[in-house]
Amino acid sequence: MKNVTVLAGGVGGARFTRGLLAHLAQAHPSDAGEGSSVAVTVVVNTGDDMWLNGLRVCPDLDTVMYTLGGGIAEDQGWGRPNESRRTSSEIAAYGRGWDWFTLGDLDLATHIVRTELLHSGQTLSDATEFLARRWQPGARLLPMSDDPVETHVRLADAADEHAAGDLIHFEEWWVRYRASVPVTEFVQVGLDAASAAPGVLDAIAGADVVIVPPSNPVVSVGTILNVAGVRDAMRTTSARIVGISPIIGGSVVRGMADRCLEVIGVETSALAVGLHYGARSAGGLLDAWLVDETDAAAVAPLVAAGIRAEAAPLWMRDVPTSAAMAERALALAG
Ligand code: GDP
Ligand code: CA
Q: Is the minimum distance from the CB of 257 to ligand 1 under 6 angstroms?
């Protein structure tokens, strides 16, 4: 095994990849003794990206970069540890920006540097590579696209200044409304004009194993899959494709991904999400799907649907438990 590619959102994708790297460093150490001889590429969702106070904010890219680089605020899963909100408070005092979306002062530096690079004509891929030089994440981080593709939701009813039927940015629905106001659909604004970023399709085509980590199936993994060429690359790659369920015992482990599944009419269960991705042999995505021990009853129906399945502990409590999970996923991929 030489190349592994992961399609990641934020917290779930980042914690999984951190475990994967720890496992690989142990099981396939490099000759130099640092890291692993297996090259890991992480294709990251950019559907949550937005402009805020003139800055380009990329929540999932930053969560992956900080998590792998040892700079994440572990308890919240985004941003940096021990940062203040002084700058955000000052911006709010001017009545600018979104008072429900605060950014820490250390995190703001990342957005300032990224925005400077983008304004000087660099692509998001270039800017990501530049930022990662500092963080040394131990994996190649690729945005899914260099073109802006922003996930919006269509409101079923009026909410504050918004009318029924309006499209609002996904982050506003998620953070301001805690996904609790009803929406009718997700719309990826900019999708038609977007192409996959350099290296993304090759990373899927040239991998030995492609991993769908326990990320949000709708607005993280689903968003990446909708980028032109990605689904085809997944269909035709000679890599084994293995996924890990983000649902344990009928509920999301963290966050509100069940609200997203509801909108697309998929039940919140390890079985339903596995079947939603579908068996590659039947035109779907997966060769294999790992479910939690408490969902062992899902294994038989998954196998019947043509998906190799197994039950294993899927709680990422720390790096060792995430590493053990990655090991099981790679073993299941075969
Ligand atoms: P986001 O962009 O920060 O929302 O992060 P992702 O899209 O990568 O993943 C969010 C999803 O990860 C959550 O909805 C959970 O279902 C899943 N998740 C988080 N922690 C765990 C865990 O410890 N185990 C499993 N199996 N899934 C998890
Ligand atoms: Ca996200």
A: yes
